[in-house]
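Board notes (copied after class):
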Amino acid sequence: MKRRIPLRKRLLVRLLITSALIAVCSVAATTWLAVEITTRALREEQGQDLADDMKILAELSGYAATHPQWKGVQSVVSDLAERTGRRIALTTTDRTLIADSAAKGTSLPLGAAATVDPLRTDTYTQPGAQLTGVDPRAVGPYRLTAGERGELDAYGKNMRNCYAQHGIDTKIEHSPSGRPLLLDSDGSDASTLLTEECGYGFSKPVPTEQKALSALTVIARACLGKDSSGREIPLYLYLNPTNKNPLNRYVIAKYDSARDTPSLKTVQNCTEQALRTQLAPYVAPAADLYLGGGDTTPPRFDMSPANKAKIVGVVGLVLAVTVAVTAVVATRLVRPLRALTAAAQQPPELHVRVPVTTRDETGILAEAFNDLTERRERLEEQRKAMVSDIAHELRSPLTNIRGWLEVTRDGVVDPDPALLGSLHEEALVLQRIIDDLQDLAAADAGTLRVHREPVRADELLAQVAAAHRVAAAAAGVDVRTETDEECWLDADPVRMRQALGNLVSNALRHTPPDGTVTLAARRDGEEIVFTVADTGGGIAAEDLPHVFDRFWRAEKSRSRRTGGSGLGLPIVRHLVAAHGGTVTAASEPGAGAVFTLRLPGAPLPEG
């Protein structure tokens, strides 16, 4: 009965729905991505503007720190405006114009972007940031003379060579005052690392610095005033020239000699104020900086009705194309699947095949289905043939046993020893067939057990040959054994005797009188190779591929009593496979047959 599939569960419908959802999600994601990228680009552009603003402020602060007046700054402003594309204007604190990159008469922006004051804002120590403090480029009276710079440069070169001899890598940089600084790989002061080995005079103030420091001390003392007893508050400042921050260059060594002296914070404030007073004549006065286009509000993306209509139209078009393409592809996919379903629902005895119309996954599936059908058909034929062979093999001895028992019961013959021997022989044939079938069933079910132990190949061959001496003598065939060296294998001796015994029995049946059956063993690398060769009539080339098939015989006329059960060679194949080995057959008509077993070897036992 054909089962009806609900519409919502059909593959075609699910493919269409899935493709539609994918199309909608992809278009929505693309739209969102475009909006996000556009917004991000605008923000990055604004960030670049902010970075340009900081560069403008830093460069103008550097100009103010190194010039006592703003005279000549117009060329700097014009150059900055050309490089950054911004409108730049400088005014005094009372909005008197100092310099402007715009045309004369252009009104200023509504508010100042920043104040340029190197005595209160540091834009040099940390690029891109405004720190509170004195700009290090404002050096004023602390600027070294040419002679002092040359002397310190020579001293710094000697210290660097000394540090290099001790395995320390350093570099020389110059501060705005012209003093060389000895820095390590992290940019920290390295002048005090090896004072005993390389000296410590590099950080000693030069006369110019000492003179400026004395003047600074006088100004700071005036700021502190006197204590309650009318005495001047003592203050001693020591110079630390290697510190990059101007406010940290001066170490307050002593200032407290009375109980009512000011606090450390007051002393530090007076020292800072004294430094600004000292540097004021050397720097330009504070000025307001105006920048055009100073609006830094992040943009808000808003689509116009026309853009919305375009997006909706594109979404609809993409959705329609996706659905159409998916419908075509899904139909091509579903057609062979329906053919496979219809073939699978047919009765198994018909062995229906499906046409292979494509070379994609469905085509491969159709080929696999056809291969499965062919294997099932072959297995079914083999099963029928095997049942027929088993019935035939069991019928012959059972018929003989039944016939002799009936004539004996009817008194036609007497149950003499010869009759009983014949019945016993027929029972043995039945027992052999049943044992062989049981072994094959265990091999097919994967329950064929082997009990491994170290086995000597020469002893194994000797046992097999001894077991078949009587049968060989009765047939007039000579059984020989050959071993190249002492070979050991890890195997079940009982099963291996069974496998080799089956091969020897088969060889004896096909070897004429005065013939020879040879059992040999040799080592080939990590494997032990057994061969069973006879001098019989051999096996035809067209029959070799079938020698390990169940109930197969090259001579169809031979009976099971003389030709065996037809299960010996299949059992050999399964026994060898259970040991992890292989078995092959080779023969030429008239030259005998050779069966070769390859099994994993075992190391020689110790002792």
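Comment from the instructor: The chain has five domains: 1-115+303-345, 141-203, 207-282, 348-428, 449-600. Residues 207-282 form one domain.
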